Fold:
Amino acid sequence: MKFTYITGDTPLDGYTIKRGLGRGGFGEVYFAVSDVGKEVALKKVDFMDADRGDNLVLNIRHPHLVQLFDIKHDDQQSESWIIMEYMSGKSLRDVLTQQPDGLTSNEASAWFFAIASGVHRLHLNGFVHRDLKPGNIFQSEGDVKVGDYGLSKLISHSQRNNHTRAIGTCRYMAPEIGKGNYGNQIDIYALGIMLFELLTGDIPFDGESDAEILTKHLTEAPDLTKVPLEYQTAIRKALEKDADKRYQNVVDMMLDVPEPNYELVPGFNRASLPKEYYAGIRSTTPTSVTPDQALPVQPVPTQPVPAQPVKNRQIPTLDIVPVIEPTPVPRQGTPTKKPEYIPPNTRHRKPPTWIDVAKGELAKKDKSQRLSELTSSMIRAVVGTGAATTLLFAVFLQTLSNKTLSSVESTQWFIWLMSVMLLSSWAVLILGKFWESSDTEDGPKRVVMFAVGAGLGALHLAIGNFLQLDFHDLHSGVSYWPWVMEHWKFAAGESPALAHYAVFTGLLFAICRWWNHATPVRTSQYDLMGAFMFALVAWFLPVAPQPLMPGVTALTLIVIQFSAPNFTSQQRKEFEAIATGWWQNG
Amino acid sequence: MNTTWKKRPRTVSNSTRVLAGPPNNSSSNSRYFFRTNKKIMKAVSDRFLMWIDAVGGYLVSLNDQVVLGQARPGTQVDIPLVADIAGRHARIVRQKEEGDYVLEPLADVAIQNQTIQSPTLLHHGDLITLGSAQLQFTKPHPLSPSARLDLVGNTRTNPFVDGILLMSESLIIGSNMANHVVYHGEEHQIVLFQQGEQLCCQSDYPVELDGVVEQSTGELFYGSQIRSDRISLSLEDTT
Structure:
C-alpha cells in the first residue's frame, strides 16, 4: 500500500505523521502525533467543503462512534484533513480475516450490540451511515466503535466520483440503494449482513463480480443454515428485500438478537446500549419484571421506541440535498426509470454505462431545444449534401454512365442525387432526434424505418420520373444477385417498377441501423467502416441505379454523421465517471 | 530467496554518507536530502522506532539488556510503559550464547500469573504481568534469537507503538506467520541485520532505499526509508 506522506512529514500544521494506517472510503488515513503528543488519526481528503452547514456530524458523541475532532483545510495543496480519534486495535475486517470461520456467538453479539448502539445514535440524530462494513468498525482497548460515518455528506461530488471509493461496498449494500430513495433501513440491512458474517465468517451474497453480488442482493434469499438458530429471525428480517418489511429501527433488531455474556468475551468492554433497548426489553418480557417494579413501569411500555421512523422519510443524504450545485446525475434518467428495480430482463442487470447516463442527459432537453438542434443539423445536411453530390458527380458519374451525358441530363442527375441524399438524411435525422433518448428496441425502429424508407423510395422514383430521368443511363445491371436483376430489368427510357423500388429502398433503411449514426450518443463523429457496410448492403440489395446507389448510400451516411451533433470525448468521460458512480454508490 | 533481477550499480557510495550527528532540521528537509543522497544520517544506536505503513509501529531494541519501567519525563528505561508500575520494574536479559531470555524482577512481576522472585527463563507465549501492565513474550522465528513483546489489554508504551522487538542479530519482516513482524499482503521479505556497528537491510524484492531505487541490500540510519510497491517502512529516533 503506497502512501503520499512518510514518517516525519508535517502536511498539516501541528501534526507529525508517524505511519500510514490504511486507505478508507475517501482517502489515505495516517497515524499522527500532535506537537504536544496527542495521538490522532488523520484522514486526507482531496476536496471537501465543510462550510456548507451540514457538518453537524462533527459534534455527535457516542461511546460507539469514532470521534471526529476537527477538519482542517490546506488551500495550497487543495487537501482537507479530518482529524479523528485514533483506534489502536484491529478493524473488524482484520478480525474476520484472521478468523475465517466466524466468531463465537458471544463475540459476535458483543460486536453487534456495540455497532448497533452506535448506528442507533446516528439514526436518532438524523444521519444514515450508508457505508457500514467491517472495514469501518474499529476496536481499541476493548471498545468497539463505528467510523467513517457522515463523511459522504461532507465530501463533494467530484470526490464521490473517484473510483477508489466504495470498492467492495456493494457486499453490504441494500437492494433499494439503486433506486436512490432510501432511509435508515439500508443500515439495518448492512447490520444484517455483518451479523451473518460475524457468525459464519462469510457474507450471505458473494460472487465473482459486483454485478453478480448485486443481482444476488436483489433476488436471492439468504441461506441461514450455518447461522445459529437464535439469530436467524433477526438476520432474515434485516435482510428482507423490501425495506418496509425490514426492522424499521435498530433497537427492534437488537431485541431479536441474543445479548452477549460479557463474562465469556474477555477484552470486550460492556456496550452502552440505548435506553430504548432497555425499555423494549421490559415491554417484551414483562414476566421478568418483579411485581413492585411492574407497577410504575407498566403504563409506559406501549411505545418502546420514541423515534418511530416515518416510512421513506427525507433523510438528508447528499443525493437528495445537493448543496453546492445541482447534481449532475440525472436521477430521472433511464436506469432509474423503471419503478421496480427487480430486473425484468438481463439488459437491466448490466451495470449502467456512459450511454445510459448520456441518454438520461438527452431526456432532460425540452422540445424547443430539440427543435433548434434538429433545424441546425438539417441545415448542416444541406451543406453536406451539396458537397457530397458534387464529389460524387465529379468522380463517378462520368465514368459510370452508359453514354455521354448531355448538360441537361447531367443537371437532372445532379438534382436527383442531391434530393435523394438530402431527403434521406433529413428523414434519418428527424427520426434519430425522436429516438435519441428513448429506450425502444431495434425491432420497432426497423418497422418504422422500413415504412419511411419505402416512402422515400417511392418519392425518389417520383422525382426521377418528374425530372424525366433515364435510370438506364447509369444502370449497369452488374449485381450480386442475377435473379434480382431479372425483376430489375428495364429498358432504356423505362424506369424501375414503383413497388420494387419502394420495397428495396425500404429494406435498405430497415436493415441498416441508420439511427445509430444520428444520435449524439456515439463514440466518434465519423464512422467510415459503418459507411462501407451500408454501401455493401446497398450493393447486395440492388437499389437502382447500380452501382451508383452504394456510393450514394455511403455518402448519405457520412452526411448524416456530419450533420448530427456528437458528445465530445470529454463529455463521454464525465458520463462514464457518473455511471461508475451510480454503480458503486447507488 | 529470489535474486534473479538485475542489480543496478549503486548510484551512491558509502563515502557520501558521513556518519555524524543528526541534522539540525531533519524533518523539514529530509525529503530533499533523500533525493540528492547527501543527507548526513546518524548511525542507528541501541534503540529505534520502526513505522511500517498499514502494519504498525514498533519499538526496536538492539541491546542485550532492556529495562522495563514507568514512562516518566527524562526516564532512562529502555521500554517505557504508561502504567502504574515502578520506575525500573523489570529487566529482560538475553543470554548471548543460547539466545534465551531471562526476566529479572525489580518489583512485583508475574509470569503466567505466577509471581516470580528470582530471574526466570521466558518461554514462547509467556504472559508477563508488571503491576497494571501486561505483555506477551514470543520468539516467533525458530532460527533467530530475536524476540517480540506484545502489549496486552490496555497496556501502552510511550511513544505509542504496537509492539516491542528485542532484536538480536536479525529481524525478519514478511508475510510468514513465523516472522517477527507479520504483514498481510504479497510475499515479500525484508531482513534487518547487524553488521559490526552498522544496521543493514536485505530485501528479496527490489526496494527504494533512501531514495535510491532498485536496491536489495543497504545500510540503515535514523530516518532511513524503505519503500516498494508492497511495503514501506521508516526508522525514527526514539528521542
Observations:
- The two ends of chain B are 36 Å apart (CA to CA).
- DSSP finds one helix and 20 strands in chain B.
